[in-house]
Structure formats: structure tokens, C-alpha cells
Amino acid sequence: QVQLVESGGGSVQSGGSLRLSCTASGAAVSSHCMGWFRQAAGKERGQIALINSDGGPDYAESVKGRFTISQDSSKTTLYLQMNSLKPEDTAMYYCAHSLAWCRDIARYTGGVYPPGAFAYWGQGTQVTVSS
Description:
The protein starts with a strand and ends with a strand. It has one helix spanning 102-109; strands at 3-7, 10-13, 18-25, 34-39, 46-52, 55-59, 67-71, 77-82, 91-98, 118-121, 125-130. Strand 4 and strand 5 form a beta hairpin. Strands 2, 4, 5, 6, 9, 10 and 11 form a seven-stranded mixed sheet that branches. The protein is mainly β and 131 residues long.
């Protein structure tokens, strides 16, 4: 089992920044694919940033150049630095941990990262960006 706890969400104005953190614990924490998803009201949950030890980070087009994912050396804390926030970034943000490598997920799914490929989830942290 892996337990994931997110923190750092809040309310900011457009153009502002936030840094999300996700602390992982449990016997199954590994270097496999980890990342951030978000779900806006009335929309499906979607991947925005992923990382694992066998490759570089992967970002959704909507956040490239604005968001940066990183991980501490112990692989137990995941971060998401969010800059130049926009109202459309308003959503619940979730940390997720897979039992597979990111590249294997992408190879099997044709380059997408569905929520179903991730076994463990945090409770989410709300990010609200006002215009």
C-alpha cells in the first residue's frame, strides 16, 4: 500500500503561483510513475505532469512552460510548482502513484496516461484561480 497526502493548494489571482507537495509513505513507494492529475467541476480527471526515475518529466500541453514537477532524492515527496496560473487551472489536484513505469504506460496506451493506470491516489487539494 502507498499513502499519498497532498498539500499546498489555495486561492490565488491570475498570474500568481502555488507549490503543491505530495508526501508518499508505505511499503510500496517506488520509483515508478508518479504525477499530478486535476479535475475541474464537471470534467474528467486528467494528467498534467508525470515523473519517474527512468525518464524525464512529461507535461500536458496546457501546462507546459508554466508548471514544473520535481521529486526529492528519496522519491517520497513530489512537488508541482505552478506559475502564471490562469482561471482555467482551477480544479482539484491529485497526486497519483502507479505500479508501472511512465514509458510502459505510454507504450500500452498510445501516449496517454489514464487515471486507471495509477493504483494509489491522494485525497486532493483544491486550487482556485480568480481573474
